[in-house]
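Per reviewer request, we include the raw input and output of the structure prediction for the construct analysed in the revised manuscript.
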Amino acid sequence: MKFHEMTAVQLADVDPNRALVVIPIAAVEQHGPHLPTGTDTILCTAVAEALEMRIPERILLTPTLWLGASSHHLRLGATFDSSLDTFVSTLCDIGQSLLEDNFVRLLFLNGHGGNIDPIKIAVRKLQPEYPECLLAAGCYWANADELISNTLTGEPKFVGHACEFETSMMLHVRPDLVDPNRTDAGELVPDQLNGIYLSRDMRQRTRHGYTGRPDLATAEKGKRLFQGIIDQLTNTAEKLLAQPLETEYQDFVGK
């Protein structure tokens, strides 16, 4: 089910107790010299749509929010950014609109690293008013560490930015948008020191605004990653649909 393709009458007929509302959130920002600025939005949308196709009778998919928290890319240009306060408020407004419409299970499905902290804040802000509802948030690759590690051949073996992972996924989803001239990004300047977070933007941390080994990306890797991620997301969605909607500790532990 796709929210934006349904009428108000059709949406009113959706059983909120049997539906998981999936809200894809992403970004439009520079992705180095080889990937389009809409990479995060393109990939997150493709993943969310594939998930909806797996269980269309239980997933209610909203349009993708393409504006993300991207201030750490601004100095490199070709980037749209939402201030953190505005972004968190927007997520809360979207969530509240759905919750007030009687939907009880929401999943903010993220496709951009800069959104990770804000989506956690948003669901934490919403939860006190809706303790009887399930409010979930996470990246579409969150449960795919082993798959990613076993598929990528370069270092580092995690999701970076315009990296081997994202470039492979784009070669599978939209190969026409990927520049064939790709090189090793070089060393990534760390944002951690003895477990302490250091706030550095992408101009400080990267040579040309991207990370990892996009030169090693292939469409075959992208297909394996994409299909594996959909398998795992389907499993996650089914588990979220089975989660109890309760308000007290004893309701969860059965005591």
